[in-house]
Amino acid sequence: MNSKKIYKANGLALLQRSTLFAGFSETELLDLYPALQPVLRRYTKDSVVIDEGDAAGQIGFVASGRIAAGTR
User: Fold this and answer.
1) For residue 27, with 0-12 CB atoms within 10 Å meaning exposed, 13-18 middle and 19 or more buried, which class applies?
2) Residue 44 exposed, middle or buried by CB count within 10 Å (0-12, 13-18, 19+)
3) CA 40 to mean position of chain CA atoms
4) Is the CB of residue 59 less than 8 Å from the CB of residue 42?
5) What DSSP string describes 5-66?
6) Which is more confident, 24 or 59?
7) What is the pLDDT of residues 25-54, one digit of tens each?
8) Under a CB-based contact definition with an 8 Å cutoff, are residues 62 and 68 in contact?
9) What is the Cβ-side half-sphere exposure of residue 54, based on CA atoms within 13 angstroms?
10) What is the DSSP code (8-state) at residue 72?
11) From CA 9, how far away is CA 11, in angstroms rounded?
12) Which of 44, 63, 66, 69 is deepest in the core (most CB within 10 A)?
C-alpha cells in the first residue's frame, strides 16, 4: 500500500471513530473525504495548537491524548 493510501486509510479511521460522524457509512465518509481535506498532525506535550483570537480555518479532532484551553 503506498503512503497516500495509508494516509487516507488513517484519516478515514479517525473520522469513523469520531462521534461527529457516527452513523455515516464508509461510502458516505469517502464521498465527504475530499471536501474535509483531513490533515494528520502530531504535537509534543505543551505545544500551542492555536492561539486565542486566531482565525480557525479547520476543524480539529484529537486522535489520542488530551488538549487543554488556556490563555497567556
Assistant:
1) exposed
2) exposed
3) 6
4) no
5) HHHHHHHHHHHHH-GGGTT--HHHHHHHHHHH--------TT--SS-TT----S----SSS-
6) 24
7) 989 988 988 888 777 788 888 888 888 888
8) no
9) 9
10) -
11) 5
12) 63
Residue 24 lies in a domain: yes
Residue type present at position 26: E
The answer to whether residue 25 sits within a structural domain is yes
Q: Measured between alpha carbons, how far is residue 71 from residues 25, 48, 52, 63 in Å?
A: 39, 11, 7, 23
Q: How many folded domains does the chain comprise?
A: 1
Question: Cell match 497516500: residue?
Answer: 4
